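FAQ: What does the model actually see?

It sees only this:
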Amino acid sequence: MIKRLLIANRGEIALRIVRACRELDIAAVAVYSEADRNSLHVRHADEAYLIGPAPARESYLNAARILEVARKARVEAIHPGYGFLAENADFAEACQDAGMAFVGPPPRAIRLMGDKVQARRTMQEAGLPVVPGTEELTSEGAAAAATGIGYPILIKAAAGGGGKGIRTVYRPEELPMAMEAASQEAASAFGHGALYLEKFLEPVRHVEVQIIADGDGNVVSLGERECSIQRRHQKMIEEAPSTAVGARLRRRLNEMAIAAARAVDYANVGTLEFLIDRQGNVNFLEMNTRLQVEHPVTEMVTGVDLVADQIRVAAGEPLPYRQSDIRVRGWAIECRVAAEDPFNNFLPSVGTVNLVTAPGGPGVRVDSALYDGLDISYYYDPLIAKLCTWGRDRQEAIQRMRRALREFKIVGVSTNIPFHLQVMENLHFLRGKVDTGFVEKHFQPRPGHRLGGERVALLAAALLAHHRRRSSQGRPPRAAPASGWRLWGRREGMSRSRWVEGRGAWRNGI
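And it is asked to produce this:
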């Protein structure tokens, strides 16, 4: 088994991986940017190393620096989490060349499925239906191709994911500007501005299937997730299972997902994404060759620990279960809590989190790296927490989510919690009647919607936090409490007891 693992990520997913390492008796090595020096994943890791300034390209996307730290820390494996370098085949290959296991699929599979055009071609060869579209193209050939497909169309980045590099075009005159904008966004996010076109289908459901495979060729499907509630092609709410999927369609989706994985000799976790129309027609959309943000809902209904299992697979161990062992129990829902203002076009909200009160109780799970005093930076994605609830059926899961959303207090920045409350009370959502256009059709940006007494509670919490800050000003600093932590590292002319930026590490002395 792996003994030392470096986590090449930040925030809640880095903390999630730290916790999995704890349970597997693996030393967790964190990396962090200057903006994240006080983050929870840094505090909870066994060691933590500064890798650069706040901008991601100078820190979390700096593969050479991360590999340098990995060698220095003598780790045996690197877990990329999601985003950043998670779907970078060159980085996965560099890890292997350096003698470290990459906790993810083989580089070849990442390349085949990470290039969306190549992925479409590969899946067609494997017998999967795909959304009508094109090969990679330039702006010169886009007009004719779009006319051939028929408007409306989607312009999509050939690399990457997460809703970046995508534009919807309804009329030919919109095409040139949309192509330029999508290419620039894709180049900025993924370092590659190539594009292709795809038919824009609506109304459709966005349903994905979670798979995991080991190095011995065993592939297991862990069922589907409903991901139709999106904004600008970015998921906001997910649930498992899907109200659109019956037993027969579920078998078909699972079979297609397993066939897709086998077609590229896949190992580790991955997700196959499909679009389903009102007639039940299914089309392959793309494959995400990494752990998904929404993996907790699958964990809650199957009892599988995806993060621990992907580490085991990366260590060369076989899967501890087979397809016949997987049983979906109950219903789970995830709301992505983001620092953004739903009443101001979801603009990101930056600032200091003065006070956090997380929900709890039966069937509630919170994955976050929030703490009082956390600075929300504009350098990174605004996702700050994932609130998940489980119920014996969908109604119970929704009831628990309503209760948990009202308990979740975050003071100091705006969040999209009011949006989630609106969705949980929407009749179409309650009936399971959702599609990818749900937010545009049904979200009404009404400040204070159904918050009632919670607005008073939030105001009181904000005043309390403000009073605490004011009352602490001017006081002499208190002595630090006794701790098992010690500072490590030094440089010329500096005592051993001081922090060494970029060269030392926090090291747990317990």
